Amino acid sequence: MISQKDIHTFEEKHRILLRTNEFICLLPHPNVREYISNYNITFPTRDIIPNGFTAIPSGCATISIENNNQNLSVHLDGPGTKPYTYGSQVNQLNMIVTIEFKPAGLYALTGIPQSHLADQSLSFEVIDLALSKLLSDAIEKAGNIYELINSLDTLLLENMYTTHCQQLMPALQNIIACSGNISIQEVSDNIHYSQRQLNRIFKQHVGVSAKSFSRLLRINKSFRLLKKADYSIMFISDVMAFYDLSHFARDFKSVCGVTPQEYRNNMSDFYINTSKF
After folding, report:
1. What is the dihedral of CA 204, 205, 209, 210, to 10 degrees?
2. Where are the alpha helices (DSSP H) in 159-277?
3. How far, in Å, CA of 176 to CA of 182, rounded?
């Protein structure tokens, strides 16, 4: 099994998104990047993560392989639409490896309608016992980080259940290209589907309606601007094409649980992964 020292011996720099002494975030192999955003490997140390550390929802799923020094367990968080706090849980582990999916990525792996899994947190054994064991074995047998992510790449690609719906990807690309600032009617017209058909596809493959995904994306896109201290909240609201500041604040709080200013004042307490889009 890999150890913390392996973080700084990994040499494939083109795959490294972020690296610290306790954490490394890596790109998957190009063949699975249609489905997977990144892999995270973390060796928690005391107080590395605040107990109130909160993940901001992105409409995407995550699989976590957790080592608590006694056994390995594989956990699934379905497509998220609500913020959830997990700092105290992670700080009790010796190591955690997470597989972060792109929109609709988990559907390709499981074939399960994602609306059934939205905001669900459960053991991955319930979904796929065989793959859950294979993921645990990959962690246990890996001699270094390269071997680990190579095994994850292979396992995920070999177990992809289905390809994306033909109409889904153009619709997703429409919404992402506009940072969520596009009407669902326009998206429907672009793919020659009714809004009802579009929402059925989104709920099955992504887990939420097209409108809900668009709102999640729009808020997630605002985080990069909020990191720039010289940008006012009003300016960011205008750039993101909200009707006015109150609409921005209302939508932001409905997704994140805090206002834009509260987020800006406490950014280190939140986890956001904008590389999924």
Report:
1. -140
2. 168-177, 184-191, 195-205, 210-226, 233-239, 245-256, 260-265
3. 9
Mean pLDDT of 21-49: 90
What type of residue sits at position 105? Answer: G
Give the pLDDT of residue 273. 83
Quote the CA–CA distance of 56 and 248 in Å, as a whole number: 16
> What residues does each domain of the chain span?
4-158, 168-276
Provide the 10 A C-beta neighbour count for residue 220.
Answer: 23
Phi, psi for residue 254 in degrees, rounded to 5: -65, -30
pLDDT in tens, 99-114: 999 999 999 999 999 9
Q: Is 76 helix (H, G, I), strand (E, B) or coil?
A: strand
Task: Classify residue 54 as left (phi > 0), alpha (psi -120 to 50) or beta.
Answer: beta
Residue type, 21: N
Segment 153-203, tens digit of pLDDT: 999 999 998 777 888 999 999 999 999 999 999 999 999 999 999 999 999
**Residues 233-242: tens digit of each pLDDT:** 999 999 999 9
Per-residue tokens: 93: 């582990």
Decide if pLDDT at 87 tops 80.
no
In whole angstroms, what is the distance from residue 230 CA to residue 199 CA? 38
**Could you tell me the pLDDT band of residue 268, with boundaries at 50, 70 and 90?**
confident
**3-state secondary structure at position 61:** coil
Most distant CA pair in the chain, distance: 54
- The fourth-level CATH superfamily of domain 168-276 is Homeodomain-like (1.10.10.60)
Contact 23, 40 (CB under 8 A): yes
Task: Answer yes or no: are the C-beta atoms of 98 and 124 closer than 8 Å.
Answer: no
Over residues 116-145, the mean pLDDT reads: 96
